[in-house]
């Protein structure tokens, strides 16, 4: 009987890994965007959005610093206790790299000590239960 020259095609196994590479993480806002969101007037708007049924929790429970929506006040409060949120606050305390800072670094203009950014968790309404 004739011999088959075809051997097993193990190369196909590699294809599975490629699919994983194409998957990208869902992008959230950049830190500098969040810094601008933290301006009082912007923050007020974000924290008091109109009811949007397409958004998690109808856009009523928003974490300003993580740019995330939560289903309810309890979920939001729980989120404030998490590592992700605390890590984010820490990141946000470092002042964003501004144009003024770039100029200072380049020796243009006088040196101004970077101001400390005070970042605290947004206040939440208590007595929800
Ligand atoms: Zn958060």
Automatic annotation (TrEMBL):
Listed Basic residues bias regions: 17-28
One CC-aspect GO term: nucleus
Molecular function (Gene Ontology), one example: zinc ion binding
Record bears the keyword Ion transport: no
Keywords: Cytoplasm, Metal-binding, Nucleus, Ribosome biogenesis, Zinc, Zinc-finger
Biological process according to GO: ribosome biogenesis
Pfam entry (one): zf-C2H2_jaz
Spans annotated as Disordered: 1-36
Signal sequence coordinates: none
Keyword set includes Nucleotide-binding: no
Subunit structure: Associates with pre-60S ribosomal particles.
Protein role: Involved in pre-60S ribosomal particles maturation by promoting the nuclear export of the 60S ribosome. Negatively modulates the DNA binding activity of Oct-2 and therefore its transcriptional regulatory activity.
Family: Belongs to the ZNF593/BUD20 C2H2-type zinc-finger protein family.
Protein name: Zinc finger protein 593
Higher taxonomy: Eukaryota, Metazoa, Chordata, Craniata, Vertebrata
């Amino acid at each position: 009987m004739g011999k088959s020259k075809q051997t097993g095609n193990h190369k196909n196994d590699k294809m599975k890994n490629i699919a994983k590479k194409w998957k990208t993480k869902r992008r959230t806002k950049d830190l500098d965007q969040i810094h601008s969101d933290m301006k009082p007037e912007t923050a007020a708007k974000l924290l008091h959005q109109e009811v949007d049924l397409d958004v998690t929790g109808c856009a009523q429970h928003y974490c300003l610093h993580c740019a995330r929506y939560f289903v309810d006040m309890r979920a939001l409060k729980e989120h404030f206790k998490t590592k992700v949120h605390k890590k984010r606050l820490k990141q946000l305390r470092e002042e964003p790299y501004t144009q003024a800072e770039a100029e200072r670094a380049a020796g243009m203009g006088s040196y101004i000590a970077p101001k400390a950014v005070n970042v605290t968790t947004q206040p939440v309404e208590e007595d929800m239960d």
